[in-house]
Amino acid sequence: MSPDNPDPERPVNEPDxxxxxxxSEATPPTAEPPAGIPHGGFxxxxxxxxxxxxxSPELSADEPRRPLRAVATVLGFVLAFAVLxxxxxxxxxxxxxxxxxxxxxxxxxxxxxxxEQPIAADGxxxxxxxxxxxxxxxxxxYVLRRRRGPVGLLAVVLGALAAAPVAWQVGRRVxxxxxxxxLATAPDGQAFTKPADLRAGGVDWLLGxxxxxxxxxxxxxxxxxxxxxxxxxxxxWPSLRPEPDLAAVSWALAGTPAPTTAPEPPAPGAAEPxxx
Length: 276
Prior knowledge:
By secondary structure, this protein is mainly α. The chain has a domain at 66-240. The protein has helices at 46-55, 67-95, 117-143, 150-172, 176-185, 219-233, 246-253; strands spanning 99-104, 107-110, 191-194, 201-206, 210-215. Helix 2 (67-95) runs antiparallel to helix 3 and helix 4 packs antiparallel against helix 6. The radius of gyration is 36 Å and the shape is elongated.
C-alpha cells in the first residue's frame, strides 16, 4: 500500500488494471443439474420441483382431457355397475321376507290384515342400496385416480342409477314363477307366500322411451353422490389426485438433504441462551 496505490490488491506498476475480486465477493458456484436433466432446464428450488412435477408418471393426468376417453370410461363403469345389480337383487331376495297370502276367487290376498313383510322388503332394499352406493363411490374414487372430479362423479351416479332397477327386477323374480303357478292352480283358501317386491319405488317411462326411477330406487345413487362428494371435499390435494411434495423433490434434485424440522441439540458445554 502506498500513496500512489491506495488499493493493496492492485499492482503498483499497473494502476489501470482492475483489482482481483476478494474472497468474500467471489461468485458462488452454480449447482450442476443431476444426470438426465438438460442444462438450462434445472434450477435449485422451485424450478427443479416443477421439472420433477411434470416428469412424474403419477401426475400425467394433467394432460389435456380426451372427451371420447372420458365418455368411454363413464359408459364402462355404468355397464359394470348394472351387471353388479344382479347379485345385489339376489341378496335382497334372500334377506327380505316373503309375504303370506291366501288364494281366493278374486286372486291372492294378504293372510294378515296389515302385514309387515312388504315394509321390511322396502327397508332391506333401501339399506342394501345405500351400502351399494357407498361402496361404488369408494371403488370409483380409488380406481379412477386420474379421473377424479366430474367424470368420476358422473360414472358412479349413473352406474348406481343403472344398478338399482336391475337389482329390483332380478330380486322380485326370485320365486315369482312358483307364486304364479300356485296362484293359477291352488284351490281357494290355500295359504302360500309371495316373493319380495317394492311398494315405495318403481320406474316411470318418460315419453314412453326413457325410464325414470323414483322412490327408493334412487337411494343407491344418493349414497354414491354423497360419499364421492365427501371424499372430494376432504381430499388434501387441490386437484383431487395425489401430488408429490414439491419441497422434498426440490431438495432431492439439488443434491441437498432436506432440513429436519426439529432443532439440533446444543453442543456440550455451550452457553445457555438468555431468557426473558
